[in-house]
Amino acid sequence: MAETAVVTGASSGIGAATAVRLAAEGFGLVLGARRVDRLADVAASCGGATRALALDVTDTVSVEGFAAEVGACSVLVNNAGGALGLDPIAGADEEQWRWMYDANVLGVMRVTRALLPALVASGDGRVVNVGSIAGLQVYEGGAGYTAAKHGLRAVTETLRRELLGQAVRVTEVDPGMVETEFSLVRFGGDAERAAKVYEGVTALTADDVADCIAWAVTRPSHVNVDQIVVMPRDQAGAGAGLIHRRR
């Protein structure tokens, strides 16, 4: 029987690419996201034993209902999250900060807590938290997001320690610049501003990150890939000054 992998935030970007890639690796899938219409399209592209379920990781009731429908699973990819705004701390939008912490940190806690019994029961559970180089470095205007991703990193490392001796592995995948809807969401749908983020740069694709996730969860059961940091060749770190742009 095929193993079942759960992917959150699977309606687009890295989540959708990860779903397609894990399906190709032979996993059955349970996909979660708020945009269920788009999620259904992703599920159809995966084929086979794929289920698409509504999920809002910022809502405990939604997470618990989702987990109740998942059943047995051995892989959890915590991908849901994102950034809002690029304001300095002096002009910070408190609601945007609150949402970023809720989605990127508390959301991961909620889903992991709900599915951990099933992951342990599988005898070879894997948790992959999709972080960011923003969890390793900071940059001007990004304090709300970098604080959240630093928080996620703390959660990941703590979870690995707490599960030591149990049959669950914990991995963090930290991408740099990936050309997805990330910037479009960050800038409230401003397509022109979002496009400038990737101008003159060959960024990573969602498939590049999905490749890292798939590799990590298909290692032999005695091998834990603690962390993967992956960036495009044109990037040396977080922040505009560490990106090479071809004019």
Q: What would your notes on this structure say?
A:
There is one protein chain. 44% of the residues are buried. The chain has a 7-stranded parallel sheet with strand order 3-2-1-4-5-6-7, sandwiched between helices. The chain is of the alpha/beta class. It has helices at 13-24, 36-46, 60-70, 94-121, 143-162, 182-186, 191-197, 206-217; strands at 4-8, 28-33, 50-54, 75-78, 125-130, 168-175, 227-230. The chain has 8 helices and 7 strands. It is globular and about 50 Å long. The longest helix is centred in the middle third of the chain and has 28 residues, at 94-121. Helix 1 packs across helix 8, helix 3 (60-70) runs parallel beside helix 4 (94-121) and helix 4 (94-121) packs parallel to helix 5.
Number of helices: 8
The radius of gyration computed from the alpha-carbon positions, rounded to a whole number of angstroms, is: 17 Å
**Strand portion:** 15-25%
Mean pLDDT: 95
Order of strands across the biggest sheet?
3-2-1-4-5-6-7
Number of strands: 7
Q: Distance between termini?
A: 52 Å
Class of secondary structure makeup = alpha/beta
Low-confidence runs: none
Largest β-sheet summary? 7 strands, parallel
From the spread of the alpha carbons, the general shape counts as globular
Order of helices and strands: EHEHEHEHEHEHHHE
Helix content: 40-55%
Keywords:
247 residues; alpha/beta; 15% strand
Quick overview of this protein structure:
With 247 residues, this protein is of the alpha/beta class. It is 43% helix and 15% strand.
